[in-house]
Every structure is written in C-alpha cells, then in structure tokens.
Amino acid sequence: MKVLIVGTGYVGLVTGVCFASQGHEVLCVDADSQKVRPLQAGDCPIYEDGLQSLLREQLRAGRLRFAEDVPQTAAYEVALIAVGTPSRADGAADLTNVFAVAKDLGQKLQPRAVVATKSTVPVGTGDKLERMLVDMGRTDLHVASTPEFLREGTAIKDTLYPPRLVFGIADAHSAEVLKVLHAGVEAPAVVCSRATAEMIKYASNAFLATKISFINEIANICARVDADVSQVAIGMGMDPRIGGSFLRAGLGYGGSCFPKDTRALVNIAGDVDYDFKLLKAVVEVNQLQRTAPLRQLTDWLNDLSGKHIAILGVAFKPGTDDTRESAALELAHALREQGARLTFYDPVVRRCPVHGSASIPVLDDPYLAVGDADAAVVVTEWPEIVDLDWPLVRQQMRQPFLYDGRNVLEPHTMQSLGFTFANVGRRAMPAALQV
Ligand code: UGA
Question: How far apart are CA 209 and CA 230, in angstroms?
C-alpha cells in the first residue's frame, strides 16, 4: 500500500519506519529541511532504541523515502497526519499545523484517499477536517482517526505489537483501508466513530496520568503514616481489576504527552460546559509532586543559596533523550531561583534547557557531577543511575543528603552508606521483616 505520512516527530517517524518494515511503500514528509536531510542520509534525529538501524534498513530496501513537500499529484491510498499539536497558553491543543496539512492534502491527494489523524487531536477534529475538505470541493476524500499509543523508549515494539488498534471511521472504505494498512499488526481493533476514537486516546492518557497522581498521593500519605508505597502498589496491582502498571510513585509524569493531553482534555470538557474535577486534581497533584525535593532540601539545608545540588537524570524518563516537561527542568528552575548551584548528569542528554536561562551543559560523568555536592536528587531512574557506585558517590559529596525522586534506591542500604536519605513514601524495611 502507498502510504503518506506528514510530520516526522516521534509518532510520524516511528510509524513510517514500522509501516515500511511491513512492506508498505512509505513517504514521510516534513517541512523542516533540517530534519529531512539527515533522515534521507539515514541519520535518526531522536534517541530511540532500534530506530536508527530499522530506518537504515528500510531506506536501503527502497520502501521508505523522505521529502519536504507532499508531491503535487499524490497517488496515496492513505495519508496520516502526524504533526505536532502543542499546548496553547490556555491548555487547549493548537491545531494550526493539522489544518494546514489537511488543506495541502486536499489540494493534492487523488480521489478516494483516506486522510487519517495520528496526532492526538481534540474530539470533533475529524468532523471539522471533513467539513473543511468538503468546502474545498473534496467530497471524494475520506477522513478517519487512528490514534497511536506508542511510548518513547519502546516505540517500535508498541507500534508493531500494540495491545489494540483504534479505527475511527465514518464510512466502510476508510475501515477497509485502515485494515489493510495494519494487516501486519496482530492486535484487536476497536472500530468506532471518529469522535469516539479521538476520545479513546485522551481518556487512555488521562487515565494513566490519574493512576500516577493517585499513587503519588498515596505515597505522600504513606510517608506520614510510616507505610511503604512500593509495597502498597504491589499489593494493589495484584488485583487484576487494578493492574500493577503505572503505579510507580515519584516526581510525577512528564514528557510530550501526559501533561499536554491532560490539560487539553480539561479544556475539551470545559468547552462543552463540563467541569472535569477529577482530571483538574490530577494535573494539580502532578505539579505539586515535582517540587517535593525542593521542600525536603530546604528542610535539610535551610538556605539553598550557594548550595551545590547535583541533579541525576535530565530526560523525562529512562530510554529517551527527550526533556520535554521533565521533572528535572522544573526542579532546576526552582532551585536556581533559590540561588542554588547546579550540576547535572544524564547518560544521553547533553544539555538541560532550564526555563528562563540558556541551556546548561549536562555531564556524562556522574561522579564528577556529585563532586563536592551538598545534596543529590535522583530525577530519572536510568539503570546507569540506579547502579552507580553509591559508596563512591558518598565519598565524592561534601554533605550526605540524597533524595530519591523515583523510589529506586533501597533506603536501608543508602542509610547504611552514610546518606541522609529521603524518597517518595518508600520506607526502609525493618531488619526483622527482610527475607
Ligand atoms: C505516553 C503513553 O504511555 C503512550 O501510550 C502514549 O502513546 C504517549 O504518551 C502519547 O500520547 O504519545 P510516553 O509519554 O512516552 O507515553 O511515556 P510513559 O512511559 O507513559 O511515561 C509518562 C510519564 O509518566 C513519565 O514521566 C514517567 O516517568 C511517568 N510515570 C510512568 C510515572 O511517574 N509512574 C509510572 O508508574 C509510570
């Protein structure tokens, strides 16, 4: 099948490479020549496990191409819109790019092509796109919604082996085309209306974000009643009605999706006069959670002015070099406002774009980063950080304060190494209970 994908961000690029690997003939278009040229040469602009090699393999096989423009007469059976939908100041998704791309497609696609959104778009966008195309005289095109559910770090696996597919359609032809497009993906498909498909995407992300904020609140209570949130999560997760995933307490969710999509869904609800109280609280809890280390550091060190704090981990989660809405940025910003001196370590991120200042270099040597530090904060649970030589870290630091913002370090061990230690509601297991 001839597939056109517009937008080579995380979603568009991974989707394009994966569809090519399944035998489709794929053209990925991006207006940004800075992105397109390296991609044409087989250089992947993002750090994603396995993507670079699969990209090169598909380029060599001639199934994947990159261009800056949609060709004038575009003979594609399906065109996927995968451009960014950034947050506007009021939290709503900015659809400028989506509509500009759809207009361009309306001028160039051959009759019967299916235009499907992959980007996360507000409920009702598919209907608006269809109206726009009809107004352009393109009653011969079909509009569908097929949202993606890939995670950064496991994007290829999530695309090729997803737990489900979602086809939001308004006609049988679109359903058939989406079925053929996904023929190589073995997963059950939910076939529904476009609005339902758009809502499935938001509701899924919002629900996962809710699980995270929920366990973070439980963690905060655990810290006050001497219970262990990690074990609470295990105990809860064994119930299949609850499930164990996304119950890791920590500094809250970041990245390019959950923060943006939760705010957007609050807006979508507001637009139809519905006050989504629960999701508003989820967003607020997440915001508060990020500043938890600041409160603890102030408690330990009093005045943070001139204190040296080492931030361990800059990416919003392990397995990616993405720093969008990373807890590290907000924490760094708050610490700098208090006059603290910061050093950063991350295994892959090389610069930290702290809000309100030029980006700060990130060290690739963790022991250098903690050298002479008054305190260290684990922000990202990279294996490289979890497996540090912690006795050496302690030796390098001037003062013993260590905050584990991802609950990945064993409290008892850290205390026995001489650290003054805090985390997010995980407690040291009493010796008598250790088996
Ligand atoms: C998320 C969803 O998981 C994907 O299904 C979805 O397709 C994607 O957004 C999107 O909308 O494009 P992603 O942002 O890559 O994927 O990252 P996740 O692995 O979901 O993690 C998001 C954040 O939640 C991270 O900051 C992570 O540290 C945090 N998190 C996750 C927790 O704090 N606790 C957990 O238990 C799990």
Answer: 18
Q: DSSP assignment of 34-83, as one string? A: HHHHHHHTT--SS--TTHHHHHHHHHHHT-EEEESS--SSB--SEEEE--
Which residue in this structure is represented by tokens 């659809």?
Answer: 95
Cα 172 versus chain centre, distance? 33
* Ligand 1 proximity of 319 Cβ (cutoff 6 Å): no
Q: Is 257 a catalytic residue?
A: yes
Count CB neighbours of 105 within 10 A. 24
Selection from 279, 281, 333, 341 nearest residue 309 by Cα: 341
% of the chain at pLDDT higher than 90: 92
Pocket test for ligand 1, best of 205, 217, 234, 385 (most atoms within 8 A of CB): 205
Please report the beta strands in 229-380, taking only residues with DSSP state E, as ranges in sequence order. 308-312, 341-345, 351-352, 360-361, 375-378
- Largest Cα separation within the chain, whole Å, is 76
250-272 tens-digit pLDDT: 999 999 999 999 999 999 999 99
Which residue, by CA, sits nearest to atom 9 of ligand 1?
Answer: 257
CA–centroid distance, 311 to ligand 1, in Å, is 21
pLDDT at 434: 60
Could you tell me the distance, in angstroms and rounded to a whole number, from the CA of residue 35 to the centre of ligand 1?
25
Given a cut of 50, the residues of the chain with pLDDT beneath it are none
* Nearest CA, atom 25, ligand 1: 253
Mutation probe of ligand 1 site: the residue of 14, 161, 208 with most atoms within 8 A of C-beta? 208
Q: Is 324 in the pocket of ligand 1 (CB under 6 A)?
A: no
Two structure tokens written together for 175:
């359903």
pTM of the model: 0.95
pLDDT in tens, 310-353: 999 999 999 999 999 999 999 999 999 999 999 999 999 999 88
Give the pLDDT confidence score for residue 108 in this predicted structure. 96
- 260 neighbors 87 (Cβ within 8 angstroms): yes
pLDDT at position 74 is 74
